């Protein structure tokens, strides 16, 4: 959701990948991450910036970045349209690392959002035969993931210092089947040390 520090984190990810890991990083943004002046925002380090003249052109600039600039990493802020979701899938299938943000309180919000659900594999209704439905102990019409997710990992930024990490494929499948996935929870304690809790049961809403 707005205000949890997504943009600040994206700038730091861009800087670390470009400066410390020596990756060719392109920040693709409507100037929020990289700034809108002649000189890119200092916080993105050595990452390159591609400015998007207007939001409706973001998906075109994303594809152009991959075709013309040979990036190893593309960072996109606020994926919000179907065209951008399709561009993300196209970039991911070309073997480029993709990091992006989208607005949504929980993973379930992204699954239910018809524009963004493709980022986590999309959802379709499948009709089972009588025997299969009995074997699974479910109704005959069930929801299934349509395709592999564009993003293999998904992080819910609940608060600035409270993140929940999903393995997208596994979490989406379990939520669609009415189960609670196992996730990794990262928080900061009172001393600002990172506390990692692995294999925690997800506390978010189901579908």
From TrEMBL:
This is Stage III sporulation protein AA AAA+ ATPase domain-containing protein. InterPro entries: P-loop_NTPase, Spore_III_AA_AAA+_ATPase. It comes from Aegilops tauschii subsp. strangulata (Goatgrass). The keyword Nucleotide-binding applies. Residues 2-120 form the Stage III sporulation protein AA AAA+ ATPase domain. One of its GO terms (molecular function) is ATP binding. Coiled coil: none annotated. Keywords: ATP-binding, Nucleotide-binding. PANTHER family: EXPRESSED PROTEIN, KINASE-RELATED.
